[in-house]
Design brief:
Layout lengths: L2 E5 L6 E7 L10 E8 L13 H4 L7 E6 L15 H16 L3 E2 L21 E5 L7 E5 L13 E4 L10 E2 L6 H10 L11 H21 L3 E2 L11 H19 L3 H32 L6
Parallel strand pairs: 3-4
Antiparallel strand pairs: 1-2, 2-3, 4-6, 5-6, 7-8, 9-10
Helix pairs in contact: 5-6
Amino acid sequence: MTTITPVFTGRSDMATLEITAPSLFGTSMERFHIINCYSVWGKSITERTIAPRLALPFPSFPTLVVGDFNIHHPSADPLRKHNSSELKASFPYFSRAAEYGYTLLNIPGVHTRFPLQGSSRPSVLDLAFASPSLVPFFQEWATDLPSTGSDHVPISIRLAHPIACPSPLAPNWVRTDWPNLEPQLKETSIPPPPALPTKHAFEEWFDSHLGKLIELLTTHTPSCRPSIRAKPWWSPLLSTLRKEFHSSSRKARTSIDPQDRVIAKLSKQEYFKAIKAAKAHDWKSFLADATPRTI
C-alpha cells in the first residue's frame, strides 16, 4: 500500500510530501520526496524568498523538486538574453544543483509562463529537478495538458521503471530496399554551397539537402522497435530452431513412441548448440572492433 505523508516545514511557500510503499516503480525503492516551492523576489532583485539550500536539500534518498523558482537561467531558457541580475539570482540554485547531482528535467526553451496581461514576454519560471537516485526513473516532462486559466501552464512529469519505457523506433537497415534505393541516390545531385554564404544561408542549404537524403533512406527502410529483451546475437535461424525444440518437446511429453523422445533430445541439443555458437561469434566480433576507449 502506498502512503503519502506531508512533511511540515513551517513555511507557507514550501510543501514536502513523503511517498512510501513496499516497492516503488517496480524496484526495492521504498520512499521518495516531492518538494514543491513557490519562491518570489526577496529584499533585492537578486534575492529569492526560498534559499537554494532549502529548495535543493542534500538528497539522502530519491527527491523530486518542482515549483515556481522565479529565476531565469540559460539551461532552461537558452534563447533568452539574460542580464547580470538574472544570472546572479539563478547561479546559486544551479550551482547547488550541480554540487549535489540534481538534473534539470525541463526541455530547454519550452516556456512555462505566458503572461495574460502586460508587456512581459513568455518565460521559464517553473523548474523541475531530480536527484541522482531518481533520474533513472524519469521518463517524460511535458506541457501538453489543457490550460487551467493561469498564466503558468500545467506540467506533467512521468516517473516509471526504465523497463516501462518502450525503445524508440529505429531504422531496420537489414531490410533496406537497396536495389531501388541505390539508383535514386546516384541520381541525387547536390549543388555546391552558395558563394560566400552567411551562417543562415549555409545552414539552410545544408538542412535542405540533408533532408532529401534522409527522406530517401527512410522511405526505403522500414522501422522497427527493438524489444528491451532483444539479443544482438539472435537470428531467424535460432527462432526456427526454438520452434522445432518446443514442438518436439511437447510431442515427446504426450507420445509413447521412444523415437519422439530421441528427436526432442536432438532438437534441444541443436538449439542450445546454435545459441552457444551465436554468442561466441557475437563476442568475437565485439572484441575484433573493441578498443580500450570503447571498453
